[in-house]
Amino acid sequence: MSPAAVSEALREVPHSGVTTLLRRVLRGGERVDMLGPLQRMHERYGNAVMHRVGSFRMVNLFGPDANRLVLLDREQIFSARRPWTAIMGRIFPNGLLLRDGEEHKHHRKIMHEAFKRPALRSYGERMNPMIEAGIVDWGDADGRRLAFPLFKELTLDLAASIFVGIDLGPETTRMNRVFEDLVAASMSRIRLPLPGLEFHRGLEGRKVLVRTFRELLARKRSEDGLDMFSRLCRAKTETGERFSDRDVVDHMSFLMMAAHDTTTSTLTSLTYELARHPAWQERIREEARAIGTPWLAFEDLARPVVLGWAMKETLRRYPPLPVIPRVATADFAFEGQRIPAGAMVVIAPIHTHHLPEWWSAPTAWDPERFRPERAEDERHTHCWIPFGGGPHHCLGLRFAELQVKAILHQLVLRYRWSVEPGYRMPVQQAPISKPRDGLPVRFERLA
Q: pTM of the entire structure?
């Protein structure tokens, strides 16, 4: 298809503002508000919008039908490797998200061993006492804390123990900074390895992770450990194929980042909404008391129903990953429009999650929408996609659910928390949804 034909097939956004949008999607750019520009674009131009900068083409596709087309990828024409390698390939090379086709399927199959029920059960058993020790002093003094760094420290300690089988101790603060540098560098606009730039800090942070994991490899391969690192070292297919040392290091680096940051994001946003909605906080507390156990085991995951609705609603309002990019490897059609091979195709969970034709009062935080009687998330198979979908559907979603529910279960049994009257969390939506002020919260011990 010629450039002229493409111009006729798709309505194009004027050149002004395109660079800013590209930076938002690919490099972070203005990271505070991604939803607003996407909503304005969709309202003005419809479900398929092409941007052109020189010979470069990017297409935003909007709505659940677009999500289903791209995520299910039945014709196998949407590459995740190409855009994600451009975005984070030097920081997280060869992670599962950066693989396509049979290679992705092969690695995912081996990695699945670390996320089966026996493994998740073991992770839960190791996680609960660490959660109890990690939150024990949150109500000390007057209980005023910044929730986001508290959750970052807690989830990193959990990831170090459950994923790697080590105790970071005083190293937690430094490793938190390493992960912050890695995520910032993956979305950096200036990709030069010059001291002082965030991209350089990310490259240095990767060296720290690689060195740490390589030093552990020989011991992990020789032991029968229950941590995820050990499980990846032992994992194999039915034909005996295993991960190479490099595979294990690359997968561990990416998994540590993904589990640490996305879970911290969800916990922080959920804590904020429960502080603003004390009646919901109390409902979840009553439910936790009725379960009758201080710790939530893997077998208990389905029991906190109200907490489950609140978690799903939080993931709708604050999806950790606001947009999902692909590169089309062949021409394809969407709603009668032809889109050329080589185009960057972007779908946006954060936009779909706020479409009024699919969600009632979409800007309201309303967990009731996930009750079986309403089931707004079931109106379309792809109107709720915080974990993506299709071949790249998040492999760790059950682990994420376990971690969030286990932490919230203990938190509501120990504390009641609140924010100042009239407070609204200033959200940075990209690259990971998080509060720009750390989320000031007051934790009050329960009698």
A: 0.89
